[in-house]
Amino acid sequence: MRVILLGPPGAGKGTQAVMLAKTLQVAHIATGDIMRAAVAAGTALGLKAKTYMDKGELVPDALVIELIRERLAQSDAKNGFVLDGFPRTVEQARALKTLLAELKLQLDGVLNLEVPENELVDRILKRGQSGSGRSDDNLEVITKRLQVYREQTAPVVAFYQSERGLTAISGVGSVDEIQARLLKVLKR
Ligand code: AMP
Hints:
- It is a single chain.
- This protein has helices at 13-24, 31-41, 44-55, 61-72, 90-102, 117-129, 139-163, 175-187, and strands spanning 2-6, 27-30, 81-84, 109-114, 167-170.
- The chain is an alpha/beta fold.
- The protein has a five-stranded parallel β-sheet with strand order 2-3-1-4-5.
- Helix 1 (13-24) crosses helix 8, helix 2 (31-41) packs across helix 3 (44-55) and helix 4 (61-72) packs parallel to helix 5.
- The protein is globular and about 40 Å long.
- Adenosine monophosphate binds at residues 9, 31-32, 35, 52-53, 56-59, 64, 85-86, 88, 92, 136, 145.
């Protein structure tokens, strides 16, 4: 099964994507996780990505698209995947479309987790306080990430609406309730 999970920062995408990938027995591919690992390892990609991530800005499309191209070519992705945090721009969505066509693969679902904006900041701040250790979970960077979401990522929702359809899922409720909603849509 090949799924894209969309949603603003703080919607709970990461938690839900990990659970979904486990249940579906497919690869969990999160561009943010891959780049944080590259930053920690001090690779060339990490060094480039860090300057953008620290400010809450998007890493340039070309870098992220190349990273996804390489990741989708790995053997564990052959079984399927849950994409988490990608695509973040319409250019990335178009590049993914081309890549999937090259690989002769089709998407089984595009799901959009919806959470009211006033709840998002609270949730991210709580994540920062709980010591999950992300350096970009502070108010200044969160505000920037939400602005970037509105300007650059919200258009991705419209892109999939017009391309193939997308399912909106309420991201309000318990982790298990939300997971059940996602699985129900994929089973249809
Ligand atoms: P995330 O873990 O998905 O919240 O991503 C953390 C940060 O990594 C973002 O604020 C961006 O700087 C960067 N990032 C993650 N995914 C992407 C992407 N698809 N395109 C550009 N930047 C990304």
